[in-house]
Amino acid sequence: MGLLEGRVAFVTGAARGQGRSHAVRLAREGASIIGIDIAADVSPDNGYPPATRADLDETVELVRAEGREILARAVDVRDSDGMAATLAEGVDAFGGRLDVVVANAGIVSWGRFWEMSDDQWQTLIDVNLTGVWRTLKAAAPLMIDAGNGGSIITISSVSGIKALPGQAHYSAAKHGVVGLTKTAAIELGEYGIRVNSIHPWGVATPMAAEDANMAKLFTEHPHYGMSFASALPGLPLAQPDDISDGVVYLASDLSRAVTGTQLTIDMGATKV
Predict the structure, then answer these.
(1) Is residue 170 annotated as a catalytic residue, yes or no?
(2) Ketoreductase domain location, by residue (predicted)?
């Protein structure tokens, strides 16, 4: 029996990278999965290739290979109606319950704040902060109605704890996720629903490893690099599974006394 046997988990940004890893790991622990991803380009300011429908299809196959069911849809976290419809479909298909939410979907772009266009700023805020609020707004009533308590996990960042140059909009959004998480933890506590945030550092995904705009910024402003150190220089990037370890912990009863907490999985980057 896995740690999440018989439970249902909702994962946003599930097509690849961390989201795919979270979906597969939660399935391995026994959860049925509801997964969404826009699976398309989000912004011309992003310097890495977008996830695709083929990526989302691969996640479906990987979850099924764990012996669990998955309902996956190409839905944008900026689309409240689409998210609510997908959740209703999934909850109905998987026995009327929703136990775990992983608000993982996010994008990144780079630039000094005064050089960003209004669209670059607003699109990232809409996805990385408002998209998390829309996720929690859609999921919380279903969790309350199911009456099983549960766990909501928001994926913030080191940028949600300390500010980083070239990422004013990203830092603002990820700090905002922390405030939302803490408030949600207080408001949902009476229903036995715990809410915590995870704060990764660099993770080996296309967002981190294939971003041409990030490389350009550091070339133009090499002194920014001092803000991007960690306490484990021998581990420059975590693997998605490292972050999924934290997701499984927070999703399961191993963390039944933990809520409103910021879990750093960051190679010590918030300490230097």
Answers:
(1) yes
(2) 7-207
